[in-house]
Design brief:
By secondary structure, this protein is mainly α. The protein has helices at 14-45, 52-59, 63-72, and strands at 77-79, 85-86, 92-93, 96-98.
């Protein structure tokens, strides 16, 4: 029985599945470090919290990576219900805080 989590990958052809699996493996190798950096940024933001766009800018990561990292943090991160941020596009976005 393996204790390593399954890596998310997909593809419609064998070669695209192989490339997706290789990319997922590569991302998994840096996931812990990126998660710790994200949690540190949330801690430093304190009760104000961070929206995903701001976290992506601060950490120099794509927005999709921030969303994946945040979702992977589970109960360590929670949404503020009393305030919201504003995206670069002028839309309301969730502020996230460290629990």
């Amino acid at each position: 029985m393996s204790l390593q989590p399954a890596l998310p990958f997909s593809g419609r052809t064998p070669i695209s599945r192989q490339h997706s699996a290789e990319a997922a493996q590569s991302a998994a190798e840096t996931r812990a470090t990126k998660s710790l950096l994200y949690l540190r940024a949330l801690r430093e933001a304190g009760d104000m919290g961070l929206d995903d766009h701001t976290a992506a800018r601060l950490l120099g990561l794509p927005l999709s990576s921030i969303c994946s990292i945040r979702n992977g943090c589970g109960a360590l991160v929670t949404a503020r219900t009393d305030a919201y941020g504003v995206s670069p596009y002028g839309k309301k976005v969730t502020l996230w805080v460290r629990t």
